[in-house]
Amino acid sequence: MRRQLCLGLIVLWSAAAALAAPYIPASDAVVLERLSLRAADPRGGELRELRRQLAQQPGDAGLAVRLARRYFEEVAAEGDPRYIGYAEAALAPWWNLPDPPTEVRVMRAVLRQFNHGFDAARADLAAAVVQQPSNGEAWAWLAAIAMVQARYADARIACERVAALGSPLIGVACIAGVDSVTGRAGLAAQTLGEALQPSAPKASDASPPELLWALSRLAEIEDRRGEFAAAEAAYRRALSLGLVDGYLQAAYADFLLDRGRPAEVLVLLKERQRSDLLLLRLVLAAQATQAPEFAAWSTELAARFDAARQRGDTAHQKEESRFSLAVRGDKARALTLAGENFAVQREPADARVLLEAALAAGQPAAAGPALQWMAASGIESRILHSLAARLKGKP
Amino acid sequence: MTPCRALVALLLWLGMALPALAHKPSDSYLSLRVVGATVSGQWDIALRDLDHAIGLDADGNGEITWGELRARHGEIAAHALARLSVSADGAACTLRAGDQQVDQHTDGAYTVLPFTAECPLPPTQRLTLAYRLFADLDPQHRGLLRLEAAGLTQTAIFSPQAASQSFELKTASHWTQFISYVEEGVWHIWIGFDHILFLLSLLLPAVLVWQRPRWLPVADFRAAFIDVLKIVTSFTVAHSITLSLATLGLVSLPSRLVESAIAASVVVVALNNVFSWLHSRRWVAAFLFGLLHGFGFASVLIDLGLPQGTLALALVGFNLGVEAGQLAIVAAFLPLAYALRHTLFYRRGVLIGGSLLIALVAAIWLAERLFGFKLLPF
Question: Which domains occur in chain A, in start order?
Answer without folding.
Answer: 50-166 (1.25.40.10), 167-243 (no CATH)
